[in-house]
Amino acid sequence: MKIQDLLRKDVMLLDLQATEKTAVIEEMIKSLTEHGYVTDFETFKEGILARESLTSTGLGDGIAMPHSKNAAVKEATVLFAKSNKGVDYESLDGQPTDLFFMIAAPEGANDTHLAALAELSQYLMKDGFADKLRQATSADQVIELFDLASEKLKNLFKHLPMTLLTLSLLLQLVRQVLLTLTWLKKPFKKWLLKWVLELRSKPTVPVVLVTN
């Protein structure tokens, strides 16, 4: 399933009105609830805030990906929202956040939310893609940007057996995934998180990922 299949135009918020973290979360959940993708506002909010209590999903560079695998989710959905002013979302880099992707996955949806996180990160690591999203003025433009980027990625992977990614961004995604995987034994999970944080403190170097 492509991220475009999860991005819903009817729930997008291209001019968030909220100015602080909890209010932003509530504004996005309200849209999901009003359009029927989430059946219970408070239940889903509890799931989102529980995840935020582990560590902020504000990844830095103005981007946040709040997410929850939740019994209140009727249909897997990714809500895109943007703030024209920026919000203090307790981001890991301490900077304001203006692009939001709220990922809602049904309780029995395997790892839909993790797959969405991984695919979104792939797009957002492309130079200039986030800035193009910031300039979008309609839901159709947002979808079109993802469609165009998807075609470019297909062509890239077709001609190159390897893709270079930035270590700091890759480790950020690994950290988010580790925090979500509740089945990992606590001591092992704690060691992995410590390792990721230590690597993040080092200078950025390229990592080679082999693709099919």
From TrEMBL:
GO terms under cellular component: cytoplasm; membrane
Keywords from the named record: Phosphoprotein, Phosphotransferase system, Sugar transport, Transferase, Transport
CDD domains in UniProt: PTS_IIA_fru (cd00211)
PANTHER family tied to this protein: PTS SYSTEM FRUCTOSE-LIKE EIIA COMPONENT, PTS SYSTEM FRUCTOSE-LIKE EIIA COMPONENT-RELATED
Molecular functions (GO terms): protein-N(PI)-phosphohistidine-sugar phosphotransferase activity
Domain PTS EIIA type-2: 5-149
EC number: 2.7.1.69
The protein's name in its UniProt record: PTS system, fructose subfamily, IIA component domain protein
PROSITE patterns hit by this protein: PTS_EIIA_TYPE_2 (PS51094)
Highest taxon of source: Bacteria
Localization, UniProt: Cytoplasm
Entry annotated with the keyword Phosphoprotein: yes
Any Pfam family the entry gives: PTS_EIIA_2
InterPro entries with a match to the protein in the record: PTrfase/Anion_transptr (IPR016152), PTS_EIIA_type-2_dom (IPR002178), PTS_IIA_fruc (IPR004715), PTS_SugarTrans_NitroReg (IPR051541)
One biological process term in Gene Ontology: phosphoenolpyruvate-dependent sugar phosphotransferase system
Principal location listed in the UniProt entry: cytoplasm
Organism: Streptococcus mitis
